Fold:
Amino acid sequence: MSMSLYMETEGQGPDLLLLHGWGLHGGVWDTLMPRLTPHLRITRLDLPGHGRSRAVAMPHSLTELALQTMAAVPPGTVVLGWSLGGLVALEAALRMPQRLRGLILADATPRFTTGEDWSCAMPPEQLREFAGGLAHDYQDTLQRFLSLQVRGDESARAALRELRESLFARGEPDTASLAVGLEILKDSDLRDRLRNVSLPTLVLAGGYDRLTPPGASEYLAAHIPDAKLEVFPKAAHAPFISHADAFAAAVLKFMKHTDRAVA
Structure:
């Protein structure tokens, strides 16, 4: 059994790597793909324990996860990370900036859970509840997680349907890896290191996001030196599905900015 991460590449042009969120897989980007592949060479992979990388165990540290994720990626790639993928992308940008050309953080946050000095996040109890739910009914837990992702979005129903259809499209995830992924979400806090990000950065946020509230994206954009922020006012946590045209346009504009060769 191969222990390398499942990845697939399509399209032509400058390289863009797509990193999905917790509990999902690279298939979650299907809506976005035809909008990007005429202009870009897109690589999407399944994170450890997710989708077709189910047999690869999720490492226990964010650093290991970032190193493992970037190992097979061509140098000079722009990395776009969504949610948990955003945390991985951010860590990769901090650890190996020389391998990357730019960073796109979509509905991401430097810290997923609330703290005394951090309110724009999910209460730790809510994350614990998901962790508890994984043990006895992980399918229901994942479905509830998806519902939370679209709450408030003007296209919530259609976006939820698409997320649900995508959920098990690449097989069922490994529950042990899902649990480790939640631990990474619970324990990571990259706020103190944001000033060290040396790459051009685009921060994309849904104005109604309940999972990683827009305040977290505003914080990222304010503390990463070369960052621009774009908010999709009526989107929730998955604007690349619910507002795919606007999302793709923002990505392509940024890619053109970071590489004049984009047609």
